[in-house]
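quick q for whoever's on today - can somebody do inverse folding on this one?? i tried earlier but teh output was garbage lol. tokens:
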């Protein structure tokens, strides 16, 4: 009996440590949970108006574009934490970590294509994630003092390049439309690498450090205020801009404009910093369900789209009927269901199912190519 009780205690402790042990950064999980639910809102709610901070009825527009950018920034943070945090490995250990990262990228790309085939009318972010992971792999050995200036430089340059890339004739062809889906071009890696590099940079700076957390909140808020303020002061038309200068000088969601990159990138840094600071307080227990969602973001994101496809097929007879599905008012059932599922799974089982599978496959695939010790 004593052995059984000890085993039960060890089992519970292992599950509890998955969310609260020294290997978890609670604030990062909280930010990921908010990003996942924000993407749910962007998919499932009807949001017509641009955000106006003086009009609370428009505040739900904060999820447009910003949730996915927060998601991308956190991808960079996760890559940094998975490759050593502030002290990345070197030599064989770094090569092994990079191989696992590339294998995960391949799995993400495959899963993204499968989700696209469901016909659910959303821009699936996973193909873009896959490319971003591959692009980030060579940068994992760089320190924060190189990564953060690199992110800043890319933020200032890539919006100008993006306008040229988006204007290429290939996107207007049937082949270009398919290529756009495969590349996740709604989240163009050529510009969104900015957010991943910034996230990787703060992970290398040490997201567990109080000074870094305060800096993220302050610097991110300042960037957001400046960029959104300049957009409000100079932009008259919220619709897609016709001129090169207008297309660059905008904070419109999913424009990849200069002001969106700076403003929404700053917003993402501020949110992560605020979540990290909040989780230094007893409030971290109140937000444990959101942290559980953030501990299994891939599972939560995928489950949302799979349940959406099944429900739409059964109820509407068409997985692509966006207006019809939104008319079912699915956001709260999806959000609350995801929170309950993630919390229960984390406390009863541990790691998210897709997270576990991806990690196991990546480790098995890279183990077969690791050089044997002499």
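ok took a stab at it. sequence:
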């Amino acid at each position: 009996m004593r052995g059984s009780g000890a085993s039960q205690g060890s089992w519970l402790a292992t599950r509890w440590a998955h969310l609260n042990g020294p290997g978890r950064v609670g604030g990062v999980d909280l930010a990921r949970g908010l990003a996942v639910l924000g993407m749910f809102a962007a998919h499932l709610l009807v949001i017509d108006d641009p955000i106006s901070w003086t009009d609370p009825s428009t505040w739900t527009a904060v999820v447009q574009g910003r949730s996915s950018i927060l998601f991308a920034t956190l991808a960079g943070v996760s890559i940094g934490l998975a490759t050593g945090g502030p002290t990345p490995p070197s030599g064989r250990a770094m090569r092994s970590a990079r191989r696992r990262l590339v294998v995960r990228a391949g799995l993400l790309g495959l899963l993204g294509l499968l989700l696209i085939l469901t016909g659910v009318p959303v821009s699936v972010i996973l193909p873009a994630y896959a490319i971003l992971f591959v692009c980030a792999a060579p940068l994992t050995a760089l320190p924060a003092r190189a990564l953060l200036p690199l992110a800043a430089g890319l933020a200032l340059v890539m919006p100008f390049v993006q306008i040229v890339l988006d204007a290429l004739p290939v996107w207007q062809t049937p082949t270009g439309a398919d290529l756009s889906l495969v590349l996740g071009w709604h989240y163009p890696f050529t510009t969104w690498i900015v957010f991943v590099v910034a996230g990787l940079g703060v992970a290398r700076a040490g997201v567990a450090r109080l000074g870094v957390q305060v800096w993220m909140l302050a610097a991110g808020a300042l960037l957001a205020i400046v960029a959104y303020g300049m957009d409000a002061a100079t932009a008259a038309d919220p619709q897609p801009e016709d001129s090169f200068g207008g297309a660059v000088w905008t904070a419109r969601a999913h424009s990849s404009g200069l002001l969106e990159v700076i403003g929404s990138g700053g917003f993402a840094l501020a949110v992560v910093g605020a979540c990290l600071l909040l989780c230094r307080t007893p409030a971290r227990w109140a937000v444990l369900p959101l942290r559980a969602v953030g501990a299994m973001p891939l599972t939560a994101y995928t489950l949302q789209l799979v349940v959406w496809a099944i429900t739409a097929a059964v109820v509407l007879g068409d997985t692509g009927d966006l207006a019809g599905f939104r008319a079912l008012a699915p956001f709260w059932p999806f959000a609350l269901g995801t929170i309950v599922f993630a919390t229960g799974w984390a406390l009863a089982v541990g790691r998210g199912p897709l997270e576990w599978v991806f990690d196991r496959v990546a480790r098995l695939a890279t183990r077969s190519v690791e050089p044997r010790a002499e």
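fwiw The chain has a mean pLDDT of 89. also The CA atoms of residues 60 and 246 lie 25 Å apart. so keep that in mind when u check it
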